Amino acid sequence: MKTVSLINMKGGVGKTTTAVNLADFLVNRESKQVLLIDVDPQFNATQCVLSGNDYIDYIKNGGYTIVDIFDSTPRISASVVVGSKQTPPTSFSDITPVKSCRGFDYIPGDLQLFKLEMAAGSGRENRLRNYLSTLSNRYDYVIIDSPPTPSVWMMSALISSDYYLIPVKPDPISMTGMDLLQGIINERADNYGFTCKCCGIILTMVDLRSNLYKEAETFFNNNARWKNLLYSKYLLKRTQVARGQLNNRFIRDLEDSALKSDFSSIVKEFIRRTT
After folding, report:
1. Number of domains forming the structure of the chain
2. What is the tens place of the pLDDT at every residue in 168-211?
3. Dihedral of the alpha carbons of 229, 233, 237, 241, in degrees to the nearest 10
4. Do 192 and 155 contact (CB within 8 A), yes or no?
5. Could you give the strand order of the β-sheet that contains 141-145, starting from the edge strand earlier in sequence?
6. What CATH code is carried by the domain that includes residue 75?
7. Which pLDDT tens digit goes with each residue over 41-97?
8. CA dihedral 182, 200, 10, 100 (to 10 degrees)
9. Residue 180, Cβ neighbours under 10 Å: how many?
10. Is 118 within 8 Å of 152 (Cβ atoms)?
């Protein structure tokens, strides 16, 4: 079972788009068993899979979310009949991933993650890794969509992962932050004692009418730290991709052969880089 976190400290670079479509292609084009985990408190990956109403119903019906994995404290429930009652935290064995209509399983995100206190060193940063260890290699890939901040949530994702994948928008600001991102990962790796390798960089939202993507290719291919990590194909900029996600539509659903062909090549290269 290979666990891969998608990370970038800058928002709006196509990280969630890459994560959900990577899971979708791995299952439906490569016949892999995949688990998608939404660790971003904004739970954008979850919204790509579930409509708003379906998510509300899921929560009302007691569905498990990422909060159940991280919350190790007993819960207090109040009742006018018996008063307050303490219930133990959810056992890992009870947290069953949800089967999506796309074929992959997933652990939904949860806005309540913002309210969960997670100080560094509390031990909670290891709970995701501990949960994954109970899955007994039932998946070929676990894809983790992490938040765009150098938070404990991101570190928890990296601690749990064998690899990390970096989606990058080809603009000067995004590229400037790459060395800072790697520096933070190296520092946290020393502090937390995890080993997690970079399995590549994917250029996203590429506009072929602009020279920015060529400049980005030159930057990464000539940089000693990033050389040989840039994927040969990129994710083209398409407004229908963003619109489609709001309606739970994925790249495979679009009538865009170039986009689908390029992303299929990305997925195949991803498999090679994580083998």
Report:
1. 1
2. 988 877 777 787 888 888 887 887 778 889 999 999 998 888 88
3. -100
4. yes
5. 98-99, 105-107, 34-38, 141-145, 2-6, 163-168, 197-203
6. 3.40.50.300
7. 888 999 999 988 999 999 999 899 999 998 877 655 544 555 555 567 788 888 999
8. -130
9. 11
10. yes
